[in-house]
Amino acid sequence: MATLKVHASACVTVLQLGVAVRDSAGDNYDFPGPVANAKICSTGYTLTTGSRTFPAGTYSEFGYYQDSAGYHNLTPLTLTVSTSGTVSDPTKGKTLTFAEDFTAPITYGSRWVAGTTSAYQYGTHNPNDDKLDWLLPSDVNVANGVATFTAQPSTHVLENGQQAWTTGLLTTEGSTEGFQVKTGDYMETSVQMPAGVGAWPALWSWKNGDNEIDKFEYHPDNPNLLELTNHVIAAQDYYSNSTAVNSGSWVKIGVVYGATSVDWYVNGVKVFSDGKGVGTTWSAYIILNLSIDAGTWHPAPQNCNPITFAADYVHVWR
Q1: What share of the chain is helix, strand, coil (3-state, %, to 5)?
Q2: What is the pLDDT of residue 226?
Q3: Would residue 89 count as lying in a domain?
Q4: What is the pTM of this model?
Q5: Domain count, the chain
């Protein structure tokens, strides 16, 4: 099963919308269930295909649409199928319980809180974690079904004397809805990795000074690498894939918060099982943000140009 979300600057109806797959020889392994006469607008159109089985191997997977001029292919992703011959579906048997598709401007306080988090020592900033961040709600902008986080130099000065950068953070902590991920949940997002040196985007969890699982962390100085970390019961993997993970490219990342193993997925393929898990009673709030490195572990920004990071959706199945 594949999920494709597309946007158009103005509403348009295409003759067909689907998800195509090609093997290394160019043979066709398309997902079943393309949609005819799909109306695509700025708020987005989501297609969920039927499921199918693949021989083990590496494939090129891409959305496509057909209009009066013919067929048009969207940006491809790499699909890797394990020797079991099937693509894992961590949503199987679960229900979508949290669906943020960024189709409308965020009303802060209801689902999301911005501008402060208990994960930061000073609420709005956290210099002791090698971050130049100074959080501003206005640094998260939602348009055309995408949330864009923008960081830029600030007039604020941090406690350590470094010049801060204003940037964006979304968290469910403190919101009216107060959503928390729990043991057994599967969380998935599609994000566009930033290119600016100093960028430090992440999707992670936090509660009561702990309960941190880093669904991913990314740094453009290692443009093909994702950091996947369990801080509850220590485990970590540096996942590198020069095809799937690149500055400026979109990638789908998921994680199952298992009691005895946390499992990470990239573009639908399981890439790491930590064999540790989070225990049976774990729960935590969601944080999605763009931090800026201060230069201790990764290079700080090399100029004053704004840095952006984008997210298409955050979904949780339970």
Answers
A1: 0, 50, 50
A2: 97
A3: no
A4: 0.77
A5: 2
Answer whether residue 91 is part of any domain: no
pLDDT of residue 85: 42
How confident is the model over 188-199, as pLDDT tens digits? 999 999 999 999
Whether residues 112 and 256 share a domain: the answer is yes
Supply the CATH number for residue 28's domain: 2.60.40
Length of the chain: 318
Residue 238 sits at φ, ψ, to 5 deg, of -100, 100
Residues 167 and 201 sit within 8 Å (Cβ to Cβ): no
For residue 303, being part of any structural domain is answered with yes
Closest CA to 247 of 298, 311, 196: 196
The ranges of the chain with pLDDT < 50 are 84-86
Q: Which domain does 63 fall in, by range?
A: 3-81
Looking at the structure, do residues 178 and 309 belong to the same domain, yes or no? Answer: yes
Residue 82: the pLDDT is 62
Which pairing describes strands 235-240 and 180-182: parallel, antiparallel, or unpaired?
unpaired
Distance between CA atoms of residues 22 and 20, nearest Å:
7
How many whole angstroms separate alpha carbon 264 and alpha carbon 112? 24
